[in-house]
Design brief:
- There is one protein chain.
- By secondary structure, the protein is an alpha/beta fold.
- A five-stranded parallel β-sheet has the order 2-5-1-6-7, sandwiched between helices. A two-stranded antiparallel ribbon has the order 3-4.
- The chain has two domains: 123 residues, P-loop containing nucleotide triphosphate hydrolases (Rossmann fold, 3-Layer(aba) Sandwich); 63 residues.
- Helix content is 55%, strand content 14%.
Length: 202
């Protein structure tokens, strides 16, 4: 089974690109959705995160805004949080890959925002980086509710730069050219991944 890592900086259109793979029937592991589940009521991360950062839970779930305020500009706090959350998301990803292999899937997509930052790229056969011009990125991000310049800049500071991501990618997809352009490129990548899998099996 071929593993395609999908990543991109905030506001680049990564989630929309992941949806194109899903719509085409490709299994997609969504790291953000996994974290949401872990932070939700009864989630495995709730108790250990509350123990490390008292007061960040509300009604049995992690209040993401409170947690963000505690770790946003505190590198040590961010490392403590990552030490709790990364092993849990890693286990969820392992279960996803195991289920896909069991189902005989030719390839899967791992949608991971911090693929390069966490070393996840090492477990992928190929990496697709989603990109867009800086002005398009900024416009998309600043239109989000509760987003501020300070938060945006802090997020960017924690991420590998778009230029570095593109330099290390096997595939690059710009989302600045519309839906049809993106879908055509995704379809071409799917066809190539299936062909690569057939070559490995032959």
């Amino acid at each position: 089974m071929i593993i395609l890592g999908l990543t991109g900086s905030i506001g680049m259109g990564k989630s929309a690109t992941a949806a194109l793979f899903q719509d085409a029937g490709v299994p997609v592991y969504d790291a953000d959705a996994s974290v949401h589940q872990l932070y939700g009521k009864g989630g495995a991360a709730v108790a250990p995160v509350e123990a490390a950062f008292p007061g960040v839970t509300s009604d049995g779930a992690i209040d993401r805004q409170r947690l963000r305020e505690r770790v946003l500009d505190d590198a040590a706090a961010m490392k403590r949080l990552e030490a709790i959350v990364h092993p849990l998301t890693g286990a969820a990803q392992h279960d996803f890959r195991a289920a896909a292999r069991e189902a005989g899937e030719p390839f899967v997509v791992l949608d991971i925002p911090l693929l390069y930052e966490t070393g996840g790229w090492q477990y992928c056969d190929y990496v697709l980086v989603v990109t867009a011009p800086p002005d398009v990125q900024r416009e998309r991000v600043m239109s989000r509710p509760d987003m501020t310049e300070a938060v945006f800049e802090s997020i960017l500071a924690r991420q590998v730069s778009d230029a570095d991501k593109r330099a290390r990618a096997d595939f690059i997809l710009s989302t600045a050219h519309g839906f049809e352009f993106a879908r055509d490129h995704v379809q071409a990548i799917i066809a190539l991944m299936i062909r690569k899998h057939e070559e490995l099996d032959s």
